[in-house]
Amino acid sequence: MPNANHDSRTLPQSPSALSQAQRRAVSELLRVSPVADDLARRFQEAGHSLALVGGSVRDALLGRLGNDLDFTTDAHPEQVLKIVRRWADAVWEVGIAFGTVGCRKTLTGTGPGAQSFHLEITTYRAEEYDRTSRKPEVTYGDSIEEDLVRRDFTVNAMAVALPDKTFIDPHGGLADLARRELRTPSTPQQSFSDDPLRMMRAARFAAQLDFAVAPEVVAAMRDMADRIEIVSAERVRDELSKLVLSDHPTKGLHLMVETGLAERVLPELPALRLERDEHHRHKDVYQHSLTVLEQAMDLEGPADQPGGGPDLTLRLAALLHDIGKPRTRRFESDGRVSFHHHEVVGAKMTRSRMTKLKYPNELVKDVSRLVELHLRFHGYGTGEWTDSAVRRYVRDAGPLLDRLHKLTRSDCTTRNKRKAAALSRAYDGLEERIARLKEQEELDAIRPDLNGNEIMSVLGIPPGPEVGRAYQHLMELRLEKGPLGHDAAVEELRKWWGEREGGA
Q1: Region for residue 29 given its phi and psi (left: phi exceeds 0; alpha: psi -120 to 50; beta: otherwise)
Q2: DSSP 3-state assignment of 51?
Q3: Consecutive 10-residue runs of the chain (504 residues): their mean pLDDT?
Q4: Among candidates 253, 195, 199, which has minimal Cα distance to 223?
Q5: How many CB atoms lie within 10 A of CB 464?
Q6: CB–CB of 346/269 below 8 Å?
Q7: Which residues, including other chains, have CB under 8 Å from residue 302's CB and lie 6 or more apart?
Q8: For residue 227, what is the DSSP state?
Q9: How far apart are CA 172 and CA 7, in angstroms?
Q10: Residue 105: which of 86, 124, 123, 122 has the closest Cα?
């Protein structure tokens, strides 16, 4: 790409790495050129400039550019709307308060099928927080250079001016990309003062891209960690979720803990560093939890299969499954350390923290339920479970059963190969029993042999609390004995009713 502009102090250590990146970028940009060039010509005809910018340029250089494209322009949002409404298939204004207009454009070329592009076009801007605001104050800039210096990291501060495809890199982002390092275009202090969320973005990009973070950036994160408290819970939550769903989440989580960010947004995580796991004294619970997260990721299905790919519910449950240990630690008389009922305490803590981070109620419920159930399996290998116990395990897990399988298997981090193999065999046995019972009893939809209407008919009672108590009694029988059949269930119901005080 022509007209590359590099800062002399960021000269690449590996010129071949840069040339490979540039070749990848040319290939990627050729693929998206029809939609990008068409849009750029329309901006040009309206007297405005347009450039591909930020993550799109970075991903093009990495050979991973998708169909979500980011652009920047000197046109203000109302001018952008006027241009794209005549051209795009759909337009949305959800980000217009921050200078961003979104749209969708589908191209039907000569290749196999149509290509649909999601485009975001943002006016040159600068944004920063004041000490009392939880939202950035947006002001529009006058040049692309001013826009780029306000971006979070140099690898995201590159642009390709369209339609002539001039490469703009005033802060040495290409060299930093080759070194796989995150630096800020301005000083880290200025960058994080403009938007404190960038500290979490440093951790997130380190996890997503597997990049190192420059020492001066880490130092600024440590010094300014308390500034993250001015950022809204929703923005923090979104960055945390992206980090957890990345390919290398433990790298980003370590950085958050080391810099003090985690202490402000997820304090339960660094608290685990002080505890020792009673089963694995060679590791603290913090390291154990990160290992469980990595092992849970290994059990996720392929992204191209139904239900496959990164699973936020499973990953959060793996990360948080032991956060109840600090509050339940007890030193026993024999020198051992116990954490009785830490799963119950941990479930409550998980529910509280995720609620504060504004996670959806359903996700909060599922993750906290997995934390509560993660110890249920322990003891299966030492004493044979009855079919009743297996049924209750399936019933309590409900639609989370598959995730509970994965979480429980991931929770084994012992280095004792014999013990690990024994636990694996025991869980294999449990899954086989569940499969057999499912074939026999439709475990996925466990319910009593009689429904509410049938209970009322047999007992001759109207709707009310007594029907619910009778239903629960039959459910307990179903879990204990398996399917009874209609006649046997009627007999058991009448027997129970007759034995009740005041029953007929």
Answers
A1: alpha
A2: strand
A3: 36 52 73 88 95 92 90 95 94 90 84 79 77 69 90 94 90 92 96 94 96 98 96 96 97 98 97 62 78 95 85 97 89 75 93 97 97 82 71 85 91 77 79 76 68 84 86 79 80 81 49
A4: 199
A5: 9
A6: no
A7: 308, 309
A8: G
A9: 5
A10: 86
